[in-house]
Amino acid sequence: MDRAALAAADERLRRAAVLGVFTLRMASDAGLTRGVVRGRLARERWRHLVGAAHVDGAAGVQGVIDEVRLRAVGAALTWPDAVLCFRTAALLHGMPVQDDGSAHVVLRGRRQAGRGMAPHYFDVHRRDVRRMLSFRLTSRRRTALDCLALLPYQEAERLMAWVRTREILTVADLVKAVSERSGTPGVRQLRRLLAATRSGALSEAERRLHILLHDAGIGGWEADQPIVEGGRVLARADVLFRAARLIVEVDGRRAHQDFEADRERLNSLTLAGYTVLRFTWRQLVERPWLVREQIETALRRAGR
């Protein structure tokens, strides 16, 4: 191809591409010859994404979410009837799950997996489908339920704490899902997660804190409570002694990775008149007497 024809074909492909993502069929329709296409693939000027989709190798990708978004576009170009789901939809919704490098999609008819496409065949109602950019994906609530049911248990347990503290799912939602999903893959794990968190303890560390409080005869507290001041939710307390305005939290590295936001949250609670005690897993396991003593001291001071 001469330079003018090549430039014109490249411009047509640029306009047809979605976020820079295209298929080889789109490249052919834009007027690029097989020789040009083969050459760009051989020189890795074009990078394969998933399925039939490619992207210019020089395109800048800023982090995991950008890559997941491009994969989602590529999946929709490959299988236009697909709905993004499971890990892919979770990442697009901002949920803290691991990226496994695949585009997870729900399909009606059987397709052959491969080249980064991971097909699933569970039923999804239209009310549980949303549109984002050029593709469709399962709703935030539906995505959370699918991930809780199908992720490895430890990852699902971490996600459970995340979605519950953000009120994406309630206990009532989980009870309903367990009933509706009877006999389907993952329902046993949903039952297990529901049983483990129904009391308000969203992790093993929080359950250990609850046991410590019960064993010490310390009452008057509530688990997993929103702290609302001036109509705004400042935080969610792992354990709240409402009358004493005392918050007890179990710190985990995953829950407090944003140092700046964590400091801002702590300052807001202090200015609102709350005392915040924070304990680690190691303290709960190795020095439970210290945890109990400090909670009791804070309650006595609040009483005075």
Overview in brief:
This protein has 304 residues and is of the alpha+beta class. The chain has helices at residues 3-16, 24-29, 34-42, 63-78, 86-92, 140-150, 153-165, 171-180, 187-197, 204-215, 259-271, 281-286, 288-303, and strands at residues 21-23, 46-48, 53-56, 83-84, 103-106, 117-120, 129-132, 135-138, 222-229, 232-241, 246-251, 275-280.
Based on the model shown, name its key terms.
304 residues, alpha+beta, four-stranded mixed sheet, three-stranded antiparallel sheet, 13 helices, 12 strands, 19% strand
Radius of gyration: 25 Å
Q: Which percent range describes the beta-strand content? A: 15-25%
Distance between the termini: 87 Å
| Major β-sheet strand ordering | 9-10-11-12
Give the overall average pLDDT.
90
Low-confidence stretches: none
Task: Please describe the topology of this protein.
Elements: H1 3-16, E1 21-23, H2 24-29, H3 34-42, E2 46-48, E3 53-56, H4 63-78, E4 83-84, H5 86-92, E5 103-106, E6 117-120, E7 129-132, E8 135-138, H6 140-150, H7 153-165, H8 171-180, H9 187-197, H10 204-215, E9 222-229, E10 232-241, E11 246-251, H11 259-271, E12 275-280, H12 281-286, H13 288-303
Parallel strand pairs: 5-6, 11-12
Antiparallel strand pairs: 1-3, 2-3, 4-5, 7-8, 9-10, 10-11
Helix pairs in contact: 5-6, 6-7, 6-9, 8-9
